Amino acid sequence: MLSRVAERLYWTARYLERVENTARLVDVYDKLMFDLPSSVNLGWYNLVAINSAESVFEERYKVRNERNVVKFLLRDETNPSSVVSSLKMVRENLRTTRDVIPGDTWEMINELSMFLEENIQQGVNRSQRFQFLDGIIKGCQQIHGLIYGTMAHDAAWYFMRLGRNLERADMTTRLLDAGSSALLYTADEETAINSHQIIWGNVLRSLGGDQPYRRATRSAISGSEVVRYLLENPTFPRTIAHCFTAIKDSASQLPRSNAVTQHINALKSNAFNEVDYEKLGQPLKDYLNDLQLDLASMHVAIRDNWFANH
């Protein structure tokens, strides 16, 4: 396989995962705003900070309100990580690699693009935001299902799996970051305990992890247990531990993978040593930032090993 084809498949999977998880991130914040007591002054601008996009946002917007933040994350083409921008990159990467993916994938991507174009204002407007975000998430899941169920599990598929799980791990850290950010605004509240359950329950549900969490832990929502589950559980597909395993397995199926798998093993062996499950505010945010840097280093190792020569 040509390295440029492999790279486009890798980025196709990353951008598609980014589309879905950006929708999940907006969705969890929308629900937190609705469910938390009105005395909890949780600001939408936190979502910009969580995505490390402050400078890009400040170039375009003067007011840090809900409408501008949601527009920035969903429809702003100057934001390279917005839903609109990411889906355009999915189409661009697939356009040149259609001979190695299932034929229906291109049609489904175009259908999702049309849905986005026709309904994007619903995402910006609060009244129909849930329906819009749900449509985006389900559209992405349909495409993932098609690729998993009808694409040969060869090198092309492993490059897509590599990208998907690396992006998924990164976005899971950002959803956890959203929870820890919300937690900081409830520290002095009389209703802090109930607020904490609302926060971590919404983070779990945003990842589709509510039922698997309850089956695994046999317990009610607890911040420390939710964070531990989303970091370390090996069986749920959106945990960091599961993504690390999938990344390593995918890399090992590809040629010349020793350097990459060694790098992943080193990061994986120390991934959870520094997290304190009793301190879920700023200490957790600091830990998640370090984890994001580790994931970025994985990308560099993958890029340098397989994509740097074309």
Keywords:
14 helices, single chain, mainly alpha, 310 residues, 0% strand
Write the layout of secondary structure elements.
Layout (H helix, E strand, L loop, with lengths): L2 H33 L9 H6 L3 H7 L5 H9 L8 H13 L7 H22 L4 H22 L4 H30 L7 H15 L3 H8 L5 H10 L7 H13 L5 H12 L12 H26 L3
Helix pairs in contact: 1-5, 1-7, 1-8, 1-9, 5-6, 6-7, 8-9, 8-12, 8-14, 9-11, 12-13, 13-14
Walk me through this protein's architecture.
The chain has 310 residues and is mostly helical. The protein has one domain. It is built from 14 helices and no strands. The longest helix is centred in the first third of the chain and has 33 residues. It is globular and about 55 Å long. The N and C termini lie close together (12 Å). The mean pLDDT is 92.
Helix and strand pattern: HHHHHHHHHHHHHH
Which range does the strand content fall in? under 5%
Task: Report the biggest beta sheet as strand number plus sense, adding barrel if it closes.
Answer: none
The total beta strand count reads: 0
- Spans where pLDDT lies below 50 across 5 or more residues: none
Continuous helix count: 14
Rounded radius of gyration (Å)? 19 Å
General form? globular
pLDDT averaged over residues:
92
Name the helicity range: over 70%
Total domains:
1
Tell me the distance between the termini.
12 Å
Structural class based on helices, strands and sheet pairing: mainly alpha
